[in-house]
Write a structure and sequence with these properties.
Blueprint (H helix, E strand, L loop, with lengths): L3 E3 L1 H9 L3 E4 L2 H6 L4 H15 L3 E8 L2 E4 L3 H9 L4 E3 L4 H6 L4 E3 L1 H10 L4 E3 L10 H4 L4 H8 L3 E4 L8 H10 L4 E4 L18 E3 L2 H13 L6 E4 L10 H18 L6 H12 L3 H25 L5
Parallel strand pairs: 1-4, 2-3, 2-7, 5-6, 7-8, 8-11, 9-10, 9-11
Antiparallel strand pairs: 3-4, 3-6
Helix pairs in contact: 3-4, 3-13, 6-8, 10-13, 11-12
The protein binds pseudouridine-5'-monophosphate and manganese (II) ion.
Length: about 300
């Protein structure tokens, strides 16, 4: 039995050495409500195709690790309730038990690397949660970036996290955090933050060359690209701040812990912002899909191999 199942177009692209962009599925099952989740997932895939690359949405279906989903598989996942959220710790167990689950950034990186896909687009990564000094809630995504050589394009860390601590952990782990086209670290729903990003790059070509240089140096781990949300779609930080505080207080009061924290906070923010956060989330994922496609194209071009 093969370890993973590529869709026919992903198999062809990998065979031919044409650009492929990995996409995660937790954003579908735990990050957005139905039907916007299905609509967005299809739109992200189409955006990658329009940019000249092949999308590979990753999920575990009945124990099979799929790299590239059919429209029907994607729809099933988008409609399903109580789907497992799979990170590094859960991937092997869920496959061995024949279960179905959506992959987080960490698990998607593992699958992408297995399939020889070097670039992955998402919305936001997990990070160090507020109050982490008490809860120890630090996403496994950070450790994964330290050990799996995939370039991950996100819109910066979500403002529901402790951004300064997230940057500190990434620095400790040796993960390059690269803001795209600006000095400030983007903060997901907002294009900028008060933090300066540790590194900056202005073109997809530079990002691709840095990815290859890490490999040549024998350094494990990937790169984190923080791509600012388009200005017209952003939500100013001061509008969001009280909503985030409220959502976090509710999570604390209800005793929500572990994997449930991020989905709970995101869902509450959609409600509190009257879906404005959802519209912004969709816009930034599409923007990330475009940049990831450009990087994948650079990596696949003959002059860069
Ligand atoms: N960012 C979003 N929506 C999401 C996630 C991040 O805008 O759904 C998901 C990603 O899959 C990420 C995960 O890997 O949340 C992080 O979860 P945790 O904090 O439990 O590690
Ligand atoms: Mn967590």
């Amino acid at each position: 039995m093969t370890l993973y199942t590529p869709s026919p177009d992903v198999a062809a692209a990998l065979q031919n050495g044409t650009p492929v962009v990995a996409l995660e599925s937790t954003i579908i099952t735990h990050g957005m409500p139905y039907p916007q989740n299905q609509h967005t997932a299809l739109l992200v895939e189409q955006t990658v195709r329009d940019a000249g690359a092949t999308p590979a949405t990753i999920a575990v279906l009945d124990g099979q690790l799929h790299v590239g989903l059919t429209g029907a598989q994607l729809e099933t996942l988008a409609k399903a309730r109580n789907v497992a959220k799979l990170s590094r710790a859960d991937l092997a167990v869920s496959m061995a038990q024949g279960h179905t689950g959506a992959t987080t950034v960490a698990a998607t990186m593992i699958a992408a690397h297995l399939a020889n896909i070097q670039v992955f687009a998402t919305g936001g990564i997990g990070g160090v949660h507020r109050g982490a000094s008490d809860t120890f809630d630090i996403s496994a995504d950070l450790q994964e970036l330290a050990q799996t050589p995939v370039t991950v394009v996100c819109a910066g860390a979500k403002a529901i996290l402790d951004l300064p601590k997230t940057l500190e952990v990434l620095e400790t782990l040796g993960v390059p955090v690269i803001a795209y086209g600006q000095n400030a670290l983007p903060a997901f729903w907002s294009a900028t933050s008060e933090l300066t990003a540790p590194l900056r790059m202005d073109t997809a070509g530079e990002i691709a060359r840095a990815h290859q240089m890490r490999a040549r140096l024998g350094l494990p781990g990937g790169q984190l690209i923080a791509n600012p949300i388009p200005m017209g779609d952003q939500i100013p930080a001061d509008i969001l701040a009280p909503m985030i505080t409220q959502a976090q207080t509710e999570a604390d009061t209800k005793g929500i812990t572990g994997k449930a924290v991020t989905p709970f906070l995101l869902a509450r923010l959609y409600e509190l912002s009257k879906t404005r956060s959802l519209k912004a989330n969709i816009a930034l994922v599409l923007n990330n899909a475009r940049l990831a496609s450009k990087i994948a194209i650079e990596l696949a071009s003959p002059r860069s191999r």
